[in-house]
Each structure stands twice: as structure tokens, then as C-alpha cells.
Amino acid sequence: MKKLKKIAICVLLYLCCINNNKLIAQTGTYDTLKVYAWVSPEGDTLPLTYLSWITVETHRTLTAAERRKKAEWTRLRNAVYVTYPYALAASRIMNEINAKLVGVSDKKDRKAIIKTREKELRKEFADRLTNLSIYQGKVLMKLIYRQSGNSCYEIIKDYKGGFSATFYQTIAIIVGTNLKQSYEAYGKDYEVEQIVQEVERMYGLRG
Q: pTM to 2 decimals?
């Protein structure tokens, strides 16, 4: 076993020597390669080289608080990745609706335009949105505010009326969320903003 270790060390040192920029090379009759040498206590001559310092660190076990924080971050990151495309779509659709409503003053005509678009939206997004968790829904509402500058409560009030907005707000409170929540990119929602910017860099998405 000792001989095997000795051979392995010799091979390793030799490989280091032939690749090290400090070796001394000389071309002669027999193309001799000169390297530094080290004589072992047993009298063996071994090639010698000097390696750069390296730092070896042991894997540190995370504390319970660190594991919890990591899990929370992962959950938030996944929620942003899932819901951000919907927030972009919502912003685009609101812009389209607003463009169609320009110059339309008749309430009945405005309602018809909104209702038609609503049917299209239900057909396109209903199944996917109903599969979101409550937590993902909360994140989506934050991102919609980020993209539109309005809370979901204000959006519903504008398009569906005050009664509908109040009704949906009541439902939201029952399930533990709030349609009136805002978005603070450099405050309480800083982590969300960092993840959004990550998504934009990775996929080239822009609001």
C-alpha cells in the first residue's frame, strides 16, 4: 500500500512539474528536461515543484433559520417565474382595452367592449389562472400593480364597477389576500423586483 501511495505521489508531482511555468528546460543532445529535485528520507530522488496556495473549506450545515429563508426565497422565485408572464399579458390587454375605449362615451358601448374582451380572456387564461395557488395569486397581483400602476381593486372598479370591486375584495380578504395591495420595488417588494429583473435578463421580457 505504501509503495502504491509512493508511486501515485511521484506521478502527481511529475505531472505538476511538466505543466509548471517554473520548470527549467534545456535542449541538448538528448533533449534533456531539467526540473527541481527533492531527495526523500529513503534516498529517492523525486521531481519537485512549488504549487500556489489553495484554501480548503468544509461544507457548512445551514441553520434552521437559513434553511427557512432559503425555502422562502425559492418559493417566491418560483412564483415570480410562473406569474410574471401573466402580469405582462394583463398590462398589454389593459392597454388594448383602453385604446378601444378612447372616444367611446356611451356606457352601454363601453360595457360591450369590455365584456367581449373579458370572454376572450376567460377562454385564453381561465384554466391556467385557476391552477395558481393563493400565494402565486398574491404575487401576481403585486406584479400587475408593477406593470399597470394600479391595484387589482382599482382595475376591477374601472372596468366592472364599484360593486364588483367591493365583492371581489371581500372574497380576497376571505382567502387571505388583498386586492388593494401596492408594489414597492425598493421597499417591501425589493426581493420580488430583483427576481423580476433576473427574469427579464434571462428571457428578454420587458413590461
A: 0.66
